[in-house]
């Protein structure tokens, strides 16, 4: 006969009932606590059945869809997804996600009023033993970040659109001057087959300008202030181009320079036109000699030099004899050819520091600077040069005149010159007076029959 078990006494039953009641209270408190977390979470929570229907939804999820919480139960989640993204949703969740490997997806969803917003979905598969729920879905509204991302992409696209179509040259360099980006316009400088990424941006700069450009680049990196400079660039074919570049910097969130952006222009043609304009403003268009304006400037410089050195200078005024006869006999084209030849002969007879100018018509002026501090010695030097000029100009001219209809006419012509000379030094403060003295001496030579040299007997 088995051992008889005594029934629990009344005190034990009371104790066990009390423990059970306390456990139920704790369980109910925990359930309410987690219910509050579920309802008040800052992200939307959904549980789905195997059919994809919503079983539960918290308030945040309901607010994202613009609906009451009770309206979501039983509806398919797919119905809240924008129709253009439903195929993506189906591909992404063709198979139920695992419990240990959440699956993420970004797509567009719709509110009750058809307003579209971007959401990030994270789906976690059902836990073992959970026969009702297919998965837990968390979703958050990422519309703001998507809009910011789109705006940034639009800015990038806009920058690339400009960079790809501008004729200017755009380069992004690191702090060592190596190329991180070059606009397609650089192909005309480097050639179509060359990859310049990560190459030295100073390599193609003309050797005489390289140190200067390098220094400006370092100053830009150090100060964060860009500069506009001009320099010479050597192309792949060895051609030298004039460039103008303006630098600017890109800084990080701490204000440190991390990149240098350089926008350059090929100003070769502009420089050529500027030189052409300068040439037209200061040079005779026929002979290429300095004109009256440039001569006046150089004469004033010569006067300033004589005041410091006490050297004499000389002004030689030249007028061709009987020049009108050539124009009358063979036309102004022949006269122009003669003037060009006269200018060439004059330049060959003087030093590089001297100035030969054309005043107009058949009048030329030669300015000799820094002869000697002694008047007699300076006079002797000026006389020798003037005589050399007279002899050279008196040599016969052989002119070849090309005709627009074809053919060339050759003319043999002899032409002499009347020459007047005036010395000047630091006592002369007026260029017109010195020029007047030389002009007066030239007229004395011409009135004496031409092909002669006369010296002004005035001061100087």
Range of strand content: 25-35%
- Which CATH architecture of the largest domain would you pick? 2-Layer Sandwich
Counted by DSSP, the helix tally is 13
Described by the principal axes of the CA atoms, the overall outline is rod-shaped
Overall pLDDT confidence: 84
Unreliable parts:
none
Strand order of the largest sheet: 2-1-5-4-3
What would the CATH topology of the largest domain be? Alpha-Beta Plaits
Counted up, domains total: 3
Classification by helices and strands: alpha+beta
CATH class of the largest domain: Alpha Beta
Number of strands: 17
Q: The biggest beta sheet, please? A: 5 strands, antiparallel
- Report the C-alpha radius of gyration, rounded: 48 Å
Which superfamily, in CATH terms, is the homologous superfamily of the largest domain?
Reverse transcriptase/Diguanylate cyclase domain
Distance between the termini: 161 Å
Indicate the percent of residues in helices: 40-55%
User: H/E element string?
Assistant: HEEHHHEEEHEEHHEEEHHEHHEEHEEEHE
How would you characterize this protein structure?
The longest helix is centred in the N-terminal third of the chain and has 31 residues. This protein has three domains: 124 residues, PAS domain (Beta-Lactamase), CATH 3.30.450; 106 residues, 2-Layer Sandwich (Beta-Lactamase); 172 residues, Reverse transcriptase/Diguanylate cyclase domain (Alpha-Beta Plaits, 2-Layer Sandwich). Helices cover 41% and strands 26% of the residues. A hairpin with a 5-residue loop joins strand 14 and strand 15. The chain contains 13 helices and 17 strands. It has 460 residues and is α+β, with helices and mostly antiparallel strands. The radius of gyration is 48 Å and the shape is rod-shaped.
């Amino acid at each position: 006969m088995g051992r008889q078990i005594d029934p629990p006494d009344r005190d034990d039953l009371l104790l066990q009932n009390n423990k059970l009641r306390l456990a139920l209270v704790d369980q109910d408190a925990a359930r309410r606590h987690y219910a509050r977390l579920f309802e008040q979470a800052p992200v939307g929570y959904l549980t789905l059945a195997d059919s994809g229907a919503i079983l539960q939804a918290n308030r945040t999820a309901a607010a994202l869809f613009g609906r009451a919480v009770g309206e979501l139960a039983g509806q398919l989640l797919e119905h809240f997804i924008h129709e253009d993204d439903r195929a993506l949703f189906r591909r992404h969740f063709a198979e139920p996600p695992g419990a240990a490997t959440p699956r993420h997806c970004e797509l567009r969803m719709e509110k009750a009023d058809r307003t579209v917003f971007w959401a990030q979905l994270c789906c976690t598969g059902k836990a073992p033993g959970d026969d009702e729920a297919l998965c837990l879905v968390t979703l958050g509204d990422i519309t703001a970040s998507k809009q910011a991302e789109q705006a940034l992409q639009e800015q990038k696209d806009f920058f690339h659109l400009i960079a790809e179509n501008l004729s200017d040259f755009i380069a992004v360099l690191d702090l060592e001057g190596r190329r991180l980006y070059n606009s397609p316009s650089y192909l005309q400088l480097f050639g179509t087959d060359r990859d310049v990424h990560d190459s030295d941006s100073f390599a193609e700069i003309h050797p005489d300008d390289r140190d200067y450009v390098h220094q400006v680049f370092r100053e830009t990196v150090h100060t964060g202030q860009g500069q506009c400079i001009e320099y010479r660039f050597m192309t792949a074919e060895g051609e030298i181009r004039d460039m103008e570049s303006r630098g600017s910097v890109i800084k990080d969130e701490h204000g440190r320079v991390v990149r240098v952006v350089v926008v350059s222009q090929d100003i070769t043609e502009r420089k050529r036109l500027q030189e052409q304009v300068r040439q037209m403003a200061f040079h005779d268009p026929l002979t290429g000699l300095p004109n009256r304006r440039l001569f006046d400037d150089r004469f004033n410089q010569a006067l300033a030099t004589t005041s410091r050195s006490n050297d004499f200078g000389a002004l030689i005024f030249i007028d061709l004899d009987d020049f009108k006869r050539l124009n009358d006999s063979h036309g102004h084209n022949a006269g122009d050819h003669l003037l060009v030849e006269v200018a060439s002969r004059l330049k060959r007879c003087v030093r590089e520091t001297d100035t030969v100018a054309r005043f107009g018509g058949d009048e030329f002026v030669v300015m000799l600077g820094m002869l000697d501090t002694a008047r007699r010695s300076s006079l002797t030097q000026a006389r020798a040069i003037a005589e050399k000029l007279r002899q050279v100009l008196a040599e016969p001219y052989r002119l070849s005149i090309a005709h627009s209809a074809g053919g060339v006419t050759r003319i043999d012509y002899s032409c002499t010159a009347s020459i007047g000379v005036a010395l000047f030094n630091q006592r002369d403060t007026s260029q017109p007076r010195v020029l007047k003295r030389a002009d007066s001496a030239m007229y004395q030579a011409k009135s004496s029959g031409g092909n002669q040299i006369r010296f002004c007997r005035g001061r100087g």
